[in-house]
Amino acid sequence: MHMNKRRFSIDSILLVIFVALVLFFGYRFYLASSIETLRTLCLLFLILMVFMFFILYMVFRKLFLKYSEVVCHHVDALAMGKIPEQSTDEDTLTSKIQTKLDKLSDITYSNLSQQAQQKQEIQQIVSDISHQLKTPIANITLYSSMLEEEELSKEQTAQFLGIIHGQVKKLEFLIDSLMKMSRLENHFISLVIQPYRIFDTIVQAVSQVSTSAQKKEIQLEIQCDETILLPHDPKWTTEALFNIIDNAVKYTNPGGHIWIRVEPWEIFTRIEIQDTGIGIKTEHFNDIFQRFYREGKVHNIEGAGIGLYLSRQIISQQGGYIKVKSQENVGSIFSVFLPNEP
């Protein structure tokens, strides 16, 4: 309110100064004129000039106030997190300003929406992490208290210690996976993409699951030309392939078979991982790549639901993508596509 009064007083002063100057110079010209008719015309022109300036002053002042109201309306709406009403008037003097304000409103509201979505995602991540960590921590606490309070035999003590050790390993795995997930999502990891033998990367991934596969008597077969050079990050691509192959081993019954085939295409190279596992329902093809998602039928199998999510993040950051085909009780085929050019 104080600023409005100050602005109005300045406007008034400018108006008075202009009128005074017009009157001063008009009166001097009036006195300098010797012809009565010219004097009369001067006086009329002087009066007309003062009147016209007053009219123009009022019109422009009204337009200025209208502009101010439009700007204030948009700012107030944005401050309250609302979408300002869009202008449909294209023929007024305020249309250009209105259009710019509408664009500013759209950008600001989009940023606010993104911030709200990110906040919601963070809350969901914290909730998911809490849920994932709750079970192993509770188990460690339970069996630790039993070891302290009860008199147990050596066999029971060894059994409880084994359970605690297993839960600690699960915690380590979860924390490690969560750190990888966070670093990938926030682009804290710089992938080093260079030509490298894809066969070596696949062998490295397979070597990490070979023990589990041997225990279940699952046959692993690699069909790949050892000379194929493919631009990729060996370390993180190994991680992505390991997660997919590890799932294949987990969800394939003993005595099953897993094939890994590599086929160069014109633009991409396809790495196909096929198993004879339990399969996935068609409606869950997209769900399995979500963070912490696990189908109900596999809850009794060890896992956290992070592996495929990490695999998709790693492959997509290298310009590739993953497709899946599956049939329940027959098996699944995961196809990883990596670009032939970095």
Description:
There is one protein chain. With 342 residues, the protein is of the alpha+beta class. It has eight helices and seven strands. A hairpin with a 3-residue loop joins strand 6 and strand 7. It starts with a helix and ends with a strand.
Task: Briefly characterize the structure.
The protein has 342 residues and is of the alpha+beta class. The chain has 8 helices and 7 strands, in the order H-H-H-H-E-H-H-E-E-H-E-E-H-E-E. It folds into 3 domains: 81 residues; 76 residues, Signal transduction histidine kinase, dimerisation/phosphotransfer (DHp) domain (Helix Hairpins, Orthogonal Bundle); 146 residues, 2-Layer Sandwich (Heat Shock Protein 90), CATH 3.30.565.
Task: Chart the SSEs and their pairings.
Blueprint: H1 2-32, H2 36-79, H3 95-149, H4 154-185, E1 194-197, H5 198-207, H6 210-215, E2 219-223, E3 229-232, H7 234-250, E4 257-264, E5 268-275, H8 307-316, E6 321-327, E7 331-339
Parallel strand pairs: 2-4
Antiparallel strand pairs: 1-3, 4-5, 5-7, 6-7
Helix pairs in contact: 1-2, 2-3, 3-4, 4-8, 5-7, 7-8
Name the descriptors:
single chain, 342 residues, alpha+beta, Helix Hairpins, Heat Shock Protein 90, five-stranded mixed sheet, two-stranded antiparallel sheet, disordered N terminus
